[in-house]
Design a protein that fits this description.
heterodimer; A: alpha+beta; B: flat
């Protein structure tokens, strides 16, 4: 069963975090290690990091199909920082991986304890819609 | 350059959509499939994924000993990711144009949903582009 693990911790306008270089490096090293571990266990389906929220646009269709873009977001909006899709035997295993990601080191090397949203991924449209 | 087109909505919005007549939902899905097919033919399609119901979402944190703590309660206003497309395009404007097309897909009653899509670059160059395997 496939699950998506989402880091939704970013806020509007946010760019590269102002952490000391060595803390950023430790964080990145941790994430690379986690990816490597999941690749070796055969559980990693895909993972992506997204550009920071200061580059996000909201797009809607205009009348004639021309896109209308907007770059202003409410302060309360959560932004996806990145995600993993994993293929695991149980939801519990997905939660365990999320807990590991949650503990990624932040400023000063302390665990961030960031919340990770975990949800099943669909492999196709629901049966009633086919 | 790769862009991600994120489609989000609240739990109430999802419940409303699911209560629509089946033919409206089918027309909506057909329009989305046609756009995906077009992107596949143009070579711009990278990935697409539909996510499980917001009701199945859990929020997970690591405890001190590394054990997961799960929580399934979210504020009503929370926007859940419903699905996404990743496209490989020549310009950001092309990514916005594709998002505009998806936003214009027919919704309940056949009119365009005008759903907003959030568009951001994926795996951007720089020191923090770390999570791509």
């Amino acid at each position: 069963m496939k699950y998506i693990l989402m880091m939704n911790t970013m806020k509007a306008g946010q760019g590269v975090p102002a952490w000391p270089q060595k803390d950023l490096k430790a964080h990145i090293g941790f994430m690379l290690g986690l990816n490597q571990e999941l690749r070796q266990s055969g559980e990693l389906v895909s993972a992506e990091g997204l550009a920071f929220p200061d580059q996000a646009k909201l797009v809607r269709a205009g009348k004639n199909g021309v896109p209308i873009t907007e770059g202003v977001f409410p302060e309360s909006k959560e932004f996806l920082a990145g995600y993993w899709i994993v293929d695991v035997d149980s939801p519990e295993r997905a939660y365990a991986i999320a807990a590991k990601a949650s503990a990624a080191p932040g400023p000063g090397g302390a665990p961030l304890n960031m919340p990770i949203e975990v949800r099943p991924v669909m492999s196709g449209p629901p049966p009633e819609m086919i | 350059m790769k862009y991600i087109l994120l489609m989000s909505g609240t739990k109430a919005g999802v419940d409303m959509y699911r209560s629509c007549p089946a033919e409206d939902i089918e027309a909506h899905l057909r329009a989305l499939r046609a756009i995906t097919q077009e992107l596949t033919e143009s070579g711009e399609f990278v990935a697409m994924q539909r996510l499980g119901q917001p009701g199945e979402a859990k929020l997970v944190r690591g405890e001190k000993n590394g054990l997961p703590v799960t929580d399934g309660v979210f504020p009503e206003s929370k926007e859940f990711l419903l699905g996404y497309w990743i496209v490989d395009v020549a310009t950001p404007e092309r990514a916005y144009a594709i998002a505009g097309r998806l936003s214009a897909a027919p919704g309940p009653g056949g009119g365009p949903t005008n759903m907003p899509l959030e568009v951001r670059q994926v795996d951007p160059p720089g020191p923090v582009a770390t999570t791509t395997p």
